[in-house]
């Protein structure tokens, strides 16, 4: 989704105020630096991100990779034990939802809570993937490949500059996501109460169309995430916000994977 953490946090959004301060910064009173000191400062190497304490793209890549590694490892274990312990992924679903909301509304990211979110989501995805795989052999691998390909395609488009994230684009996506959320909740209630069977309103040709739209929205959300991270790096936000960027990307990737899993299953059905 268009990540709420990115949207409301001044470190990433376009409406943000001052860049969060970095502990350890020093200032020098005007007129106290002589010519020799200025020349030495001019000739010295540029400060690294470790010295400045600012977030870089490498920081985001490392944190995202770490979070995904935790998610995949837990998911693989849950995938294997789901037939014997089907309750694990259900617990993971509710815990992941709670931790996701907690992390989304924290102004300062907590690496421990974000990693805990990765554990919970890994349990959820491992279990639900096993259930889909038991019904539709090979669908999990197809969904994984589709997710990776979509991520790569959106990143290439964003880096090329051919797709721009504008305020109008963001508003359109938020409205579309709101409508999709309402539709999904209504459909879920109708299926759980027995009013509709199977996929509910998501079955048949209509379900395929809705699935394609949902995948398109998730891909568009990735573009917004990339743009938010770019703004954060350019504004020099503290390095600790790389965890927030990783959390935002993983939230969107989980959404994209689940939508692909559902869409491919409907097509197979």
In terms of topology, how is this protein built?
Elements: H1 4-8, H2 35-43, H3 49-52, H4 57-81, H5 87-104, H6 111-135, H7 139-160, H8 167-192, H9 204-235, H10 242-268
Pfam family, one: BaxI_1
Keywords: Membrane, Transmembrane, Transmembrane helix
Protein name: YccA/Bax inhibitor family protein
Characterize the structure shown.
The chain is mainly alpha-helical and 269 residues long. The protein has one domain. 72% of the residues lie in helices and 0% in strands. It contains 10 helices and no strands. The model is unreliable at 21-33 and 47-51 (pLDDT under 50). The chain crosses the membrane at residues 60-81, 87-105, 112-132, 138-158, 170-192, 204-226, 238-258.
Short description:
This protein has 269 residues and is mainly alpha-helical. The protein has 10 helices and no strands. It has one domain.
Task: Provide the helix percentage.
Answer: over 70%
Rg, please? Answer: 22 Å
- The average pLDDT value, as a whole number, equals 82
Poorly predicted runs are 21-33, 47-51
The portion of residues forming beta strands comes to: under 5%
Number of helices: 10
Biggest pleated sheet: none
Q: Assembly type of the shown chains?
A: single chain
Count up the domains: 1
Compressed to H and E, one letter per element, the order equals HHHHHHHHHH
The first-to-last residue Cα distance is 27 Å
Categorize the overall geometry: globular
What would you call the structural class? mainly alpha
Number of strands: 0
Pfam family, one: BaxI_1
Keywords: Membrane, Transmembrane, Transmembrane helix
Transmembrane segments: 60-81, 87-105, 112-132, 138-158, 170-192, 204-226, 238-258
InterPro entries: BaxI_1-like
